[in-house]
Amino acid sequence: MQDYETARRDWNWDTFRSWLDYLPGQKLNIAYEAVDRHVLHGRGNKEALRWFGKSGERKSYTYADLKRETDRFARMLTDRGFGPRTRVYSLLGRVPELYIAALGTLKAGAVFCPLYSAFGPEPVRSRMAIGKAEVLLAGPRDYAKKVAPARGSLPNLKMVLLTPSGTAPAPDTVDLAEVLANTPAQFECAQTDPQDMALLHFTSGTTGTPKGAVHVHEAVIAHNATGRIALDLHEDDIYWCTADPGWVTGTSYGIIAPLCAGATMIVEEAEFDAERWYALLEREKVTVWYTAPTAIRLLMRAGADLPKQYDLSRLRFLASVGEPLNAEAVTWSAKVFGTPFHDNWWQTETGGIMIANYAAMDVKPGSMGKPLPAVDAAIVEIDNGGIIIIDEPNIPGQLALRAGWPSMFRTYLDEQQRYDKTFRKGWYLTGDLAMRDEDGYFWFVGRADDVIKSAGHLIGPFEVESALVEHIAVAEAAVIGIPDERAGEIVKAFVTLHHGFEPTDELRKDLLGHARKKLGSAIAPRQIEIADDLPRTRSGKIMRRLLKAREIGLPEGDISTLETPT
Ligand code: AMP
């Protein structure tokens, strides 16, 4: 993109459709566009995936290798009677098998649902039950700990594939390496319709169970276009997205977009470490880097002297997503890397980047940027039956997008009403509060609901509260996010106790342990306070917002900034 205003005037979704190949008869398959297409166009020898394991292993896959292995995986599924619409779940860390399974599943016309491997047994069970998981890929330990005990309550689960091979295979499981070794790498990519379901990503709301956002193959039009425009991806790029595919960023931009662009993508299995990250950026000559504010804050804490010890001159484009990126981080990165982090905004439901600071545009530090060409974004006020679009700049309201972009979620699985509620008068309501300035840049203000963002991960208070009240001592629980310098927010729980239980430190520790065991480290509260009572509305609803106002020192009578505009 040379110039934002020209692109906005001249480009629409048809422009972006024309950037893909399609299959005969206007059929469209994400895996075909991401992998097979490159091989057919003679780019099979190009390196697609460069993987670094936790123990120092390294593996490299060309586009031809990826085609062969995803063909094999798809064939393995269909040979066993799975195919269109089968829900294939993964509970794997960032290992090559995850990437092959994701693309192989799509190739078979089945639906891929990645779960974050740090989830505890309860989030795993609920998401598998809601999505009626039929096939699961997992590590032997995760399976034994998180899935095997609940297998009786997952009647749809027909096949469990374990990787790497365990010492003694668990009953009712299959060794992935073994079945693949006996499967030929021959498969004709499924001729899926653009509207066929492809991906299921779970997200959290204020109330109720996790929501399964349904995405279709047509989403690849947005993945490809935004990868090129918002992340400035080109075929010769070495690209590193640090997100885990268990979250939507790690799939849309950690698998699909870079492969569609024909780039080489880096995957590192291990978690954050400032020195290792800088060393990787230098050694692998990374040119485009997509990460999140929590990591950037940790890098800032590690100091500006550390990156000076590395040659990071190949870095051409830096982007950030998932939480507000403060202006200070943008200016810091410009100084340290010679180019600033470009903030962009989107969410599970949008499937792809919707608002961004583009390479072709000046970055406004602290702003999320401007809507993608072909996307209409507005600040709206919610009125009884409809919405009022706020035209004046710098007035906060709810961020809304005009419905109809290709990567828009098509429903919340089996919850059509919940889905319908997010749309008004042809606009999708994002649940975020934002402002637009006089130059058309959007600024994040806050969430319009009680959902918590911790280290870039969306956490529904209800899921945490439900796990806490399962403890024998807990009568009620209320969960909020409290500000944290590193993670943006951390989860804090307030609980009241049943008669006969004393608020001892020992009990508090026991509750922390209980939550961690059930929910896993990514979701469990970091702090638990035992309270005599919880504040509630006249109708008896617990007021999380009041708890939050007290916690962050806002006057209790003035919680207007925490109120939803609905
Ligand atoms: P998720 O669906 O887990 O990807 O989370 C989406 C939510 O993360 C959004 O609705 C925002 O609340 C938040 N978010 C994502 N990107 C940004 C950003 N650039 N600035 C501020 N908040 C963001």
TrEMBL record:
InterPro entries documented for this protein: AMP-bd_C, AMP-bd_C_sf, AMP-binding_CS, AMP-dep_synth/lig_dom, ANL_N_sf
Coiled-coil residues: none
EC numbers, comma separated: 6.2.1.1
Domain annotation AMP-dependent synthetase/ligase: ranges: 41-413
Signal sequence range: none
A single cellular component GO annotation: cytosol
Keyword Metal-binding tagged: no
Superkingdom of origin organism: Bacteria
The AMP-binding enzyme C-terminal domain, residue ranges: 463-541
Keywords, ordered alphabetically: Acetylation, ATP-binding, Ligase, Nucleotide-binding
GO molecular function, one term: acetate-CoA ligase activity
An example Gene Ontology biological process: acetyl-CoA biosynthetic process
PANTHER family: ACETYL-COENZYME A SYNTHETASE, ACETYL-COENZYME A SYNTHETASE 1
The protein's name in its UniProt record: acetate--CoA ligase
